[in-house]
């Protein structure tokens, strides 16, 4: 689910949910379930930046690049022309960065355009993820608790990771919206975080833009996903998060993609 929030005039967030194999790409609906008979799954969230509608354009280009580049890279890999998941995801981020940088350098209305990207690639046993910017990927093991898989590419993110500040201080820090890494946006190089995690039945993953964190504490995110009230269970997990963030803040665009590992 995605919402432009209470303040922004347009929604600069984009998200993607699809299944793909060597031959085909199929977009998924906003909710549903499925198996791996037809291929692997890709989920992604991108938050655009730039003047006018450049940010909206940037995030849309970013998710469209995934659809075009990953199946091609997968075909090359199956033919022995490329390496594994890490290299494929790094290549995707570099190609997207090149495309946004080209547009930003050659079209005045696109100057400074850029985007974050948080992406998860699910096969039957593993999540391979790649990330740049301050959108996030969270992991909620079936055994309990939550873990932020992605690292915020910001000074505030560094302070929080190194326990120089706490979550409350991070939320009110004057530089909380200042991103040090992004696709495009005038950056010369791109160095995405790439990793993997094995998953099992009952595990939940959340990919979200920073509008979620602006409106919700970590403990609230965990509660809405793992222990919702009877009224909240009538909504999809993503809808619970977006509605609550919108009610508590709504100063930014808000996007949430929730993926749960179900029984075969």
Features:
264 residues, eight-stranded antiparallel β-sheet, five-stranded antiparallel β-sheet, 25% strand, globular
SSE ordering:
EEEEHHEEEEEHHEEEHHHE
Sheet/helix structural class: alpha+beta
| Unreliable spans | none
Task: Please tell me how large the radius of gyration is.
Answer: 18 Å
What gap, in angstroms, lies between the N and C termini?
A: 25 Å
User: What portion of the residues fall into strands of 2 or more residues?
Assistant: 15-25%
Q: Residue share in helices?
A: 25-40%
Shape: globular
Q: What characterizes the major β-sheet?
A: 8 strands, antiparallel
Q: What is the number of helices?
A: 7
CATH architecture of one domain: 4-Layer Sandwich
CATH class bucket of one domain: Alpha Beta
SS elements, strand count:
13
Mean pLDDT metric = 92
Describe it for me?
- With 264 residues, this protein is α+β, with helices and mostly antiparallel strands.
- It has a domain at 2-144 and 181-209 and 251-260: PPM-type phosphatase domain (Phosphatase 2c, domain 1, 4-Layer Sandwich), CATH 3.60.40.10.
- Helix content is 33%, strand content 25%.
- It has 7 helices and 13 strands.
- Strands 2, 3, 4, 5, 6, 7, 10 and 11 form an 8-stranded antiparallel β-sheet that branches.
- A hairpin with a 3-residue loop joins strand 6 (117-122) and strand 7.
- Helix 1 (54-78) packs antiparallel against helix 2.
- The model has no long low-confidence stretch (mean pLDDT 92).
């Amino acid at each position: 689910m995605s919402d432009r929030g209470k303040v922004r005039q347009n929604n600069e967030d984009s998200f993607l949910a699809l299944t793909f194999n060597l031959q085909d790409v199929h977009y998924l609906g906003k909710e549903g379930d499925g198996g791996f008979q037809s291929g692997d799954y890709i989920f992604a969230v991108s938050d655009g930046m730039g003047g006018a509608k450049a940010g909206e354009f940037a995030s849309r280009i970013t998710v469209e690049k995934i659809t075009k580049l990953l199946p091609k890279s997968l075909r090359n890999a199956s033919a022995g022309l490329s390496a594994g998941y890490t290299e494929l995801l790094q290549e995707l981020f570099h190609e997207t960065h090149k495309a946004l940088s080209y547009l930003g350098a050659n079209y005045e209305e696109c100057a400074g355009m850029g985007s974050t990207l948080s992406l998860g690639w699910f096969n039957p046993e593993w999540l391979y993820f790649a990330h740049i910017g301050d959108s996030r990927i969270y992991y909620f093991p079936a055994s309990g608790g939550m873990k932020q898989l992605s690292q915020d590419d910001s000074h505030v993110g560094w302070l929080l990771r190194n326990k120089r500040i706490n979550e409350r201080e991070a939320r009110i820090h004057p530089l909380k919206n200042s991103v040090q890494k992004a696709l495009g946006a005038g950056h010369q190089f791109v160095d995405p975080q790439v990793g993997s995690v094995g998953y099992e039945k009952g595990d939940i993953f959340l990919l979200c833009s920073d509008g979620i964190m602006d409106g919700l504490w970590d403990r609230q995110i965990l509660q809405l996903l793992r222990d919702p009230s009877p009224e909240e269970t009538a909504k999809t997990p993503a809808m619970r998060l977006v509605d609550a963030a919108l009610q508590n803040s709504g100063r930014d665009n808000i996007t949430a993609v929730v993926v749960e590992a179900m029984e075969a």
